[in-house]
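Consortium newsletter contribution from the modelling node. Members have asked for a concrete example of what our holo predictions look like. Here is one, prepared for the adenosine monophosphate complex that several groups have been discussing at recent meetings.
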Amino acid sequence: MRIVLLGAPGAGKGTQAKRIKEKYAVPHISTGDIFRAEMAAGSDLGLKVQEYVKSGRLVPDQLVVDIVSGRLLKDDCSKGFLLDGFPRTAGQAEALDSILAAQGKPLDEVLYLKLSESEAVNRLLNRAKTEGRADDTPETIKKRMTVFNDLTEPLISYYHAEGMLETINGDGPMDEVTAAAFAVLDKIKG
Ligand code: AMP
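And here is the predicted structure:
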């Protein structure tokens, strides 16, 4: 099963991705997690991306696409994957389409976790208190929301036009959101 999880920052992508990964046994590929791990390790890649991540701007497409395309070639992705936080721009979505077309393995589903901006911002502010992520400051949250609205939201119509989009209400309790996501994915599986 080849799945993309779309949603604004704070929509609960990370939480839902972990549950989907367990139930459907697909690797969870989060570009944000990859960048945070590289930054924590102080690697060259970490140094390259840290200014972007810390300020809430997007890492340049080419860099992200190279990382994801390498990751998708690994053995554990042969039966599927769950992409979380990628693609985030039209350029990334087109690159992903070409990578998968070359493998003859198109996406099965794009799950869009939809929730109001005010709820997303509240969740991010709460997460700032518990997790202490460097990019969960009020200023950066604002920037990430603008980036989402300007660059990532257009992907919703793109995938809708391709007939791949399923929208899930992300406002409810986590377990309800999970149940809705599982219901969509069970249909593909079955
Ligand atoms: P996330 O954990 O998905 O919210 O990502 C945290 C930060 O990592 C983002 O604000 C960006 O700076 C960077 N990032 C993650 N994924 C991407 C991507 N697909 N394209 C560009 N930048 C990304």
